[in-house]
Design brief:
seven-stranded antiparallel sheet; elongated; about 35% helix; 25 strands; alpha+beta; about 600 residues; six-stranded antiparallel sheet; Double Stranded RNA Binding Domain
């Protein structure tokens, strides 16, 4: 307690007596002022401070500790900290490839980063949104928000049903205080007009009879707390919808060559992931055929640095759903196809050259379009792998590159433009055990040629097969490879999340609630009318007092209070004398508490 508090609590005489008695006590016990000032607030010097009366403070106990932890968890400060931690925890999900989105890219990252990639994988950085630490933050935030909302919701509902708070006894402490003396005014008419005016301004009003006066208490802005609660409830709704979506959604990837089709069943997907509550029977029964895929690129003659960059990708698909006629639709990037129960997005594209491989015995061991994997350069140089386990006398693998606009120079085979200007195949053929019978799953687009023997020419070097559409090549051992044509393929992502639209609704409601909580001012206004003793009955002096209180920064409150006072005074006959508080006078926090 400071000196000012002591002066307010004790009269000056009692303070002097207290100081004198303290000096006498110190002198009798042989203490000096230095000894009296030797106490330090550091516990390592003086040990724990004893409780009042020398008693040891009681322990919290198990129940008390639980209540303390619950209050800490459900505080708004903790909720904000958890919300910030959740945002930070989601950052690795955008920095590192996620298995649920792109397993191939995740495996590539692990191969390229070695031990560092293994450490990140152990920590769950490639499955962030299903990791234990992310789930823990998510659940704690959920519990914290629920614990914050429920008590506040009950208080707010009681406030909505309750009358505005009573008029404080001293209005001089509040913002914009204005006192007007109105000789000959009608007190009842003045109070009635004040109540009507406040109601037209959307205030909740309550008229009260006091000991020597009458007053109107008005309140407005409870919608601010409603918006605040709506914002937090919507956040909980977002969390619930995201959790529900993770449990019931599914996502699958497919690759379809032009002219081929897809039927929505689990066996048709290249990869498929679903939530724990997903039922395969819920897959919508639709099918489609990829009729044509079109791509446009920047042509030569434009800015040289932009030549070959894509301009547009479009996929024409013929969709068939039960009970409806076949419908042709066009998919574009960020313009998905929506069917009942699923959304199909265009993810990628490439080339599928049509290759036929015949073994030395004349058997066709591979035929048809082969999906190639782009290497990532501007020219769409793509890797091609064909596995022929049924070839005789040895299993055969054809590996190489497809080149939309092919060039073979000192850099090796590569493409200089992504469109089909001069398509070529650059291949080598290998024979041996492909390892397909080992029972170990293998990537269909990769083959380990280090365990195979290449087919060589007379000089002992591997034979390089270079083909254009319509050409074929006979290898020395009798194997024939022919290049029959080129088709395009498109990669699609089929996804379904039944809570997706509710996430959007909750987010929009949260934004609306936030706008209300930020821009709706909460304020209280009081109007008091009193009459001098013996001067009532409409012929005496009527004193009008008006003041206001804002729960937050409200720069217009003072002006509104004075405007209301002038408006009420102008409605009465007679002269008036005003005794107004300074315009910038505003109550402190203790005054606000007295008005509740």
């Amino acid at each position: 307690m400071g000196t000012d508090d002591a002066d307010r609590t004790n009269p000056p005489e009692e303070t002097d007596k207290t100081l004198n008695s303290t000096r006498t006590s110190d002198s009798e016990s042989g203490r000096t002022s230095a000894a009296a000032d030797s106490w330090s607030s550091k516990r390592d010097k003086d040990g724990p401070r004893p409780a009042k009366g020398g008693a040891t403070p009681p322990a919290l106990g198990l129940r008390g500790t639980g209540r303390f932890l619950w209050r800490q968890l459900t505080s708004m400060q903790t909720a904000l900290i958890l919300l910030m931690l959740l945002a930070i925890a989601a950052v690795p999900g955008s920095l590192y490839p996620q298995r649920s989105v792109n397993p191939a890219l995740t495996d590539q990252f692990l191969e390229e980063n070695g031990r560092w990639g293994e450490i990140l994988d152990t920590l769950g950085f490639f499955e962030v949104f299903s990791s234990p630490w992310f789930s823990a933050i998510y659940l704690l935030l959920f519990i914290s928000l629920i614990g914050c909302i429920i008590p506040r919701l009950g208080v707010h509902l009681r406030q909505l049903r309750a009358k505005p708070p009573r008029t404080p006894s001293r209005l001089t402490r509040f913002a914009g205080y204005t006192r007007l003396e109105l000789p000959g005014a009608d007190a009842d008419a003045l109070l009635e007009r004040a109540q009507r005016s406040l109601r037209r301004s959307r205030y909740r009003t309550d008229r009260r009879e006091e000991t020597a006066s009458r007053s109107v208490s008005a309140e407005r802005g409870l919608l601010r707390e409603t918006g605040n609660l709506l914002f937090h409830i919507s956040l909980v709704g977002v969390l619930i919808c995201i959790a529900g979506g993770q449990l019931t959604n599914y996502r699958g990837q497919i690759t379809v060559v032009e002219g081929n089709g897809f039927s929505n069943s689990l066996t048709q997907y290249d990869s498929f992931e679903s939530g724990a509550w997903f039922d395969a029977a819920d897959l919508p029964p639709f099918q489609f055929t990829l009729e044509e895929f079109r791509a446009e690129y920047v042509l030569e003659g434009a800015d040289e640095s932009r030549v070959g960059q894509p301009l547009s990708f479009e996929a024409d698909v013929a969709v068939t759903t039960p009970g409806q006629e076949q419908d042709t639709r066009t998919l574009q990037v960020n313009k998905p196809l929506h069917v009942d129960g699923a959304s199909m997005y265009l993810l990628g594209n490439g080339y599928a050259p049509e290759v036929t491989v015949t073994d030395p015995e004349g058997n066709v061991v591979a035929e048809g379009p082969v999906i190639t994997v782009p290497m990532g350069d501007v020219g769409y140089t793509s890797q091609l792998v064909i596995k022929a386990p049924d070839a005789s006398p040895k299993q055969t693998a054809v590996v190489g590159f497809f080149l939309p606009t092919g060039v073979i120079d000192e850099q090796g085979p590569h493409s200089i433009y992504p469109d089909l200007v001069d398509p070529q195949l650059a291949l080598t053929v290998h024979q041996g055990d492909l390892g397909l019978d080992s029972g170990v799953p293998q990537n269909a687009y990769e083959v380990d040629v280090s365990t195979l023997e290449p087919i060589t020419g007379e000089d002992g070097t591997p034979v390089l097969v270079s083909l254009a559409p319509g050409q074929f090549y006979d290898l020395p051992d009798g194997t024939t490879v022919s290049f029959d044509g080129v088709r395009r393929y498109a990669a699609f992502d089929v996804a379904h999340d039944p809570f997706e639209r509710w996430v959007l609704v909750s987010a929009l409601v949260a934004v609306g609630g936030l706008i209300l909580s930020l821009f709706v001012p909460r304020r209280r206004l009081w109007v008091r009318v009193s009459e001098d003793d013996g001067k009532g009955g409409g012929g005496g002096l009527v004193v009008l007092e008006v003041a206001g209180l804002a729960r937050s920064d409200d720069p217009t409150l003072t002006d509104d209070v004075k405007t209301l006072a002038d408006k009420l005074a102008a409605s009465q006959d007679g002269t008036r004398h005003s005794d107004s508080a300074p315009p910038d006078a505003a109550p402190d926090d203790t005054h606000e508490g007295s008005a509740q």
